[in-house]
Amino acid sequence: MSRAGEGDFSSWVQPHVPAMQRFAARLVDRSEADDVVQEALVRAWRRWSTYDGRRGEPTGWLLAIVADRARRHRTRSRAPEPGLPDTDVPAEDTRPDLDLERAILRLTGRQRTAVELYYFVGADVATCAQAMGCAEGTVRATLHQARGRLRELMGDQS
Known about the structure:
Rna Polymerase Sigma Factor, Chain: A; mainly alpha; Arc Repressor Mutant, subunit A
């Protein structure tokens, strides 16, 4: 299908909702992720007729909408970008996953978005590029730079 407009929106979008939820949970506090996904679904439904399958897969288009809605949600609520996961762990706890979360938060916005999409959402490079509005080579280079920065931040000197 090259254009949306045929069939049922719910059936069309359903396979992509889990990726949208994972991405939203990485962009805003988990307590607000469902709101962001709902806002993105409303926006996607309103703009569904503008989707053109020749420009990429639906997942990339939908993830770009999630990113936009998350950005607007943070601006509206005037809340800071998502912080560390809610835990009752003392600050001196140095579990690797907590260190990784801290390191990811120190990446540039573009690097963090690429890491979130590729590693946490499971999007391929083409979908990341579509969601980020850039070329596939840019995504590959950004991921390469992000991995290097994460190694540096995590203290891996190899």
